[in-house]
Amino acid sequence: MAIIRMDIQSVVVGAGPVASVVVLKPRKDRGAASKLPIRIGMVEAIAISMGVDGQEQKRPKTHDLLQSVISGLGAYLSSVVINNVEGTTFFAQLQLVNSLGETLSIDARPSDALALAVRAHAPIFAEEEVLDTAALPDFASVERDERQREAEAFHDFVEGLSPEDFA
Per-residue pLDDT tens for 117-148? Predict the structure, then answer.
């Protein structure tokens, strides 16, 4: 299974009927499928935003606490992987490296994993299968492909014309 390096493109903090969303995008262009929108809770959206912005807090929040505990145990977060999607539910894993150099995979909600990743400055990945299943298309690429198909159809039409068609 291939994994793709992702970056947080945007975080939308919703309220009421508007859902909160974090949008991940591949670090390198993948063509048609490009952006991975993940619906999250409002509190988690705020936690991710605070980590992205690097806002200092007077008291540690839950994700700050978790990062301190991991560090205090002599481990570090090496990466986060969005590793599965079932319907509209995404799944993630924290990749921790302990003091012995062993890698531990810990299941996590994507929102919590992302909030921790931005605080730990850890890379974010998504399995290619998740992107193939749930990514939004690159609409500019789709539009280019459609224009190309229309141009080819028009070319075929013109090539098929005969002088009798104009009589």
Answer: 999 999 999 999 998 888 765 555 555 656 67
| pLDDT tens-digit series, residues 35-61 | 899 999 888 888 898 877 666 777 778
Q: Which tokens sit at 39? A: 């619906």
So where are the chain's domains?
Answer: 3-166
CB 6 within 8 A of CB 126: yes
3-state SS class at 124: strand
Show the tokens assigned to 88.
């509209």
- Round to whole Å and give the CA distance between 53 and 7: 14
Q: Do residues 111 and 158 touch, judged by C-beta distance below 8 A?
A: no
CA distances from 75 to 52, 69, 92 (A): 22, 9, 19
CA dihedral for 15, 8, 30, 5, sign (positive or negative) = negative
Q: Half-sphere exposure of 36 toward its Cβ, with a 13 Å CA cutoff? A: 33
Homologous superfamily, domain 3-166: Bifunctional nuclease domain (3.10.690.10)
Q: Is 36 helix (H, G, I), strand (E, B) or coil?
A: strand
